[in-house]
Amino acid sequence: MNQKQKIINTINHIQCNPVPFQLDLTHDMEQKVIGTLGADYIEALDNCFALERNEEFTDLDPHRKKDMFGAVWLMDQQGDFGVVENCLLPEPDLSEYIFPEPDEARIREKCERLVSGENKDRFSMYIIGFSLYERAWSLRGVENILMDMALNPEFVTELLDRIADYNNKVASIAMEYPIDAIFYGDDWGQQKGLIMGPRYWREFIKPALNKMYSHIKSKGRYLCQHSCGDIEEVFPDLIELGLDIYNTFQPEIYDIEKVKKEFGDRLSFYGGVSTQTVLPFGTPDEVREQTRKMLTVMGKDGGYICAPTHSMPADIPVENMQAFLEVVQSQ
């Protein structure tokens, strides 16, 4: 059975032995691993997913880069993303802002790579990051967009609807290829609860998600949604909308036994091995223990892809990465 079929079985809640796994590394971590173990080690991971990202950036100088929507990101601090330097929507008004068109040639280039060669036996996902709320705040500002939900609801609805239209254009091009899923990235959660709360999530986020999700489902493709933080309040909503896989599933946040019991027959979970605590700060034995627990609890009756909760950053010891791989590869 190839990796693609393992994931399809998992989504359909069919027990998989071994449980499929994925290990993604940030650029800095990849360079650290290559320097320690060699490039062949990376190439031999045998991940279950093939992934391509829609995002493109233009370097402006050593400190700043511009995204496809025109937001300029200051990159001096460490981490995956910088800080938005400009505010493209200083007022709750879209009349002066021109939305970008998808880069069709670049999307096709990525999708051709995604479904060809060594990826043909993997479950392929095209990633549209900053897909809704995050795109809105990157244009308007975090404080502004949250205040707008209370003070300027019509503007928020229009903005999210326009962002959803852009995402659907991208997905339409990607789905001309035999990719398996669209993966949306958007952070809604805090360490406890939703950033905007369930009321505003259902008022603003859910309708736009429905527009995006129904477009994907109409083409018979699977859906994966990333959100950091605690979004358990809206798991039923996501299931109602047709979500297949939820990522990133942080064990510091969720009662994994409870979540598996309540939602494990209707939703698949991807992640679960903590890049917040055990991987950077634990011992190799503690990493092994948490990985085995996730495989045992979440892997029962399918519905689980074992992975770190995020791409491993460079603050994780190589020995801890090896401990994770030791467990998932020896199932």
Description of the molecule:
- There is one protein chain.
- It contains 13 helices and 11 strands.
- The chain is of the alpha/beta class and 331 residues long.
- The strands form 2 sheets. It has a 7-stranded parallel sheet with strand order 1-6-7-8-9-10-11.
- Helix 10 (256-263) links the parallel strand 9 (245-248) and strand 10.
- The longest helix has 22 residues, at 153-174.
- It is globular.
Distance N to C terminus:
15 Å
Order of strands side by side in the largest beta sheet? 1-6-7-8-9-10-11
Largest sheet geometry: 7 strands, parallel
Radius of gyration: 20 Å
- Number of helices, counting only DSSP H or I runs of 4 residues or more: 13
Q: What is the overall shape?
A: globular
Count all strands and give the number: 11
Provide keyphrases for this structure.
single chain, 331 residues, alpha/beta, 13 helices, 44% helix, globular
